[in-house]
Amino acid sequence: MNSTPQSTSLPHFRAVIEYDGTDFLGFQFQASGRTVQGEIEQTLLRLTQQSTRVVGAGRTDAGVHAFGQVISFRSVWKHPPSDLRRALNALLPIDIAVRFLDLAPADFHPRFSATERWYRYQVGQWSIHSPLRTRYAWELPPTVDLEAMNLAAAHLIGSHDFAAFGQPPQDDPTASTIRLVNEARWWHQTPYLFFDIRANAFLRRMVRTIVGTLVQVGLGRMVPTQVAGMLASRDRSLVAQPAPPQGLILMSVTYPGSLEFPSISGLSGAEYSAEEHTSGAEYSAKEFIL
Question: What amino acid positions are annotated as catalytic residues?
C-alpha cells in the first residue's frame, strides 16, 4: 500500500461517529491492541489504498462509549461525502458507525475548535445482577442519595482547577488543569440514574473520577461540601477511585457559529433519553444502549 502525507490540498472531511467501547483499548491509536482510531484508519486504507490520519474531538478511555464523537481526516476520496459514509459503514466493524459525514470547513479541528463536550454517566439500579444492562451501566444499590449527589455536583459548576480529579493530555503534561463546567447534575428514571456533565474540555479520567467521588457522597461515605475542598486542594489522594468505564458515554461535541454541524434529527444527542428504553420487562437492544 502507498502512504500519502496528510497534505492540506486533500479534501477535508468531518464525521460524527457512534461506538460501543467495550472491546476497544480507547479511541486513540496504540501500537498493539484494538482502538477506534485504528479501525477507522484501517477501513479508510481499504477504501482509498492510501494511509489516512484520523483526529478525534476526545480521547475516550478503554471501555468508554460514544454517541457523538467527532472526527476529521483528509483523504484522496473523490466521490460525494454521502458515498463515503455508506462505504465506511459497509466496511467498519459492527461496534462503530458513522452517523453523519460532510466536508469540513477550512479552519475546522474536531478538538481545538470545540467549545463544549457533553458526557453522560449511567448507573443501573435493579434487584439482581443484569449482565446485559451492565454492559452500559454501573450497578449500584437503590439506596444511593440522589439529592446529596446533586448538592455535591453543584460545587463543580463554574471555572475551577480540576487537578484533583484528572490529568492533562499525555501530549501536553504541563497544560492547565482549569476547566469551565456548565452543567453537572444527576437525574433519575427507573431503573437508572444519569449524570450529565458539560464543560469546555475535560482532563484525563476527570468525568469518571468525579462520578466515583459523587457516588461516595451518595452512599454516605463523604459529605457534599468535601467536593469544594477537593477542588481547592488539587490533591488526587482526596478523591475517590474512578467509576468503571462502561457507564460513560461521550454524547456530543459543540462548535461555534460557522463550524457547527447542520441541524439534523438525532445528531445532537438530545433525543438520547431513557424514556423510550426503560420498560423494564422488555429486553430489547435499545434498553441496553441508552
Answer: 61
CA 177 to chain centroid, in Å, comes to 19
Interacting residues of 273 by C-beta distance below 8 A, sequence separation 6+: none
Continuous H helices in the chain: 36-48, 81-91, 146-153, 206-218, 226-233, 285-288
The grid cell for 85 is 459514509
The structural domains of the chain, ordered by start, are: 12-103 (3.30.70.580), 116-250 (3.30.70.660)
55-56 and 12-19 beta bridge pairing: unpaired
Name the pairing type of β-strands 138-139 and 116-124: parallel
- The pTM assigned to this predicted structure is 0.89
User: How far from chain centre, in Å, is Cα 2?
Assistant: 33
In angstroms, the CA 96 to CA 207 distance is: 22
Quick one: pLDDT at residue 32? 87
**Helix 146-153 vs helix 226-233: angle between axes, to the nearest 10 degrees?**
30
Confidence at 28, pLDDT banded by 50, 70, 90: very high
